């Protein structure tokens, strides 16, 4: 399996080569084509399996091909500031090599909200955020979700472990109902399965076992 069999936009394929990614990991090989086709995904994948590009490549392709203007088209929710920052950095590394000058914003709590508010003044195409700070930004009218096409929940089990269940429900209620959802978790206890069941529409299950 190689990246060129997955139906990626030529600009993304070229960017992967420039960043020296050779072949997709198993979760990338399983997730990318169906995600590009618009399906909801339920991904079980351990840390280090390459989830960022598994959702990041379909996300960037969707944003590249999406509606006009700098509007929020894709939202990634992550459990911690470190994961949000890492994910945003990985998406920016690719986006820098793409046409369209995509703006990828990142937001997390524990730091002043003011620079994050300032940074959103010109809008953004993609937001990577922890749930609480995302709601704070929305309460400051810094974000609109009308153009949102894609939601990613990264490390859903950790999002729930960290007590974000209520914030997640409040966020979901703000998003357009018609959207694609990519849901990733390392484990599927009942609460995570319940969250997935409430969110996903005929999801395709993709897996990357821990030993892979
Ligand atoms: P996860 O989110 O599943 O924990 P990451 O997406 O952070 O995993 O990827 C883990 C590491 O593997 C990162 O350093 C990333 O750059 C690297 N990586 C991801 N995909 C590939 C690939 N296709 N080829 C080589 N390295 C990769
Ligand atoms: Mg990750």
Protein model, in words:
The chain has one domain: Rossmann fold. β3, α5 and β4 form a beta-alpha-beta unit. It has 212 residues and is an alpha/beta fold. Bound molecules: adenosine-5'-diphosphate and magnesium ion. GO terms for molecular function: ATP binding; hydrolase activity; nucleic acid binding; RNA helicase activity. Keywords: ATP-binding, Helicase, Hydrolase, Nucleotide-binding. One of its GO terms (cellular component) is cytosol.
Strand order of the largest sheet: 3-4-2-5-6-1-7
The helix content is 40-55%
Q: What is the strand tally?
A: 7
Q: Can you tell me the CATH architecture? A: 3-Layer(aba) Sandwich
C-alpha-based Rg, rounded: 16 Å
Domain count: the total is 1
Name the structural class. alpha/beta
| Sheet having the most strands | 7 strands, parallel
Shape: globular
What is the average of the pLDDT values?
Answer: 95
Q: What compounds sit in this structure?
A: adenosine-5'-diphosphate, magnesium ion
Give the CATH class.
Alpha Beta
Strand content: 15-25%
> What is the CATH topology assignment?
Rossmann fold
The CATH superfamily title: P-loop containing nucleotide triphosphate hydrolases
Straight-line distance between termini = 15 Å
Keywords: ATP-binding, Helicase, Hydrolase, Nucleotide-binding
Protein name: Superfamily II DNA/RNA helicase
Domain Helicase ATP-binding: 32-206
GO molecular function: ATP binding; hydrolase activity; nucleic acid binding; RNA helicase activity
């Amino acid at each position: 399996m190689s990246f060129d069999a997955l139906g990626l936009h030529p600009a993304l394929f070229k960017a992967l080569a420039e960043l020296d990614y050779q072949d997709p990991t198993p979760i990338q090989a399983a997730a990318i084509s169906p995600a590009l086709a618009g399906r909801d995904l339920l991904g079980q994948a351990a840390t280090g399996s390459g989830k960022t590009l598994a959702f990041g490549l379909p996300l960037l392709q969707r944003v590249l091909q999406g509606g006009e203007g700098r509007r929020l088209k894709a939202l990634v929710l992550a459990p911690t500031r470190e994961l949000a920052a890492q994910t945003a950095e990985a998406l920016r590394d690719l986006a820098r090599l793409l046409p369209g000058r995509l703006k990828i914003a990142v937001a997390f709590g524990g730091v002043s909200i003011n620079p994050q508010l300032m940074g959103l003044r010109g809008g953004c195409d993609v937001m990577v955020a922890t749930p609480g700070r995302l709601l704070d930004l929305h309460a400051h009218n810094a974000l609109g979700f009308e153009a949102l096409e894609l939601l990613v929940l990264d490390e859903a089990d950790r999002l729930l472990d960290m007590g974000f269940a209520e914030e997640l429900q409040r966020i979901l209620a703000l998003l357009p109902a018609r959207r694609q959802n990519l849901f990733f978790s390392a484990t599927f206890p009942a609460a995570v399965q319940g969250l997935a069941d409430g969110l996903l529409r005929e999801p395709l299950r993709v897996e990357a076992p821990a030993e892979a």
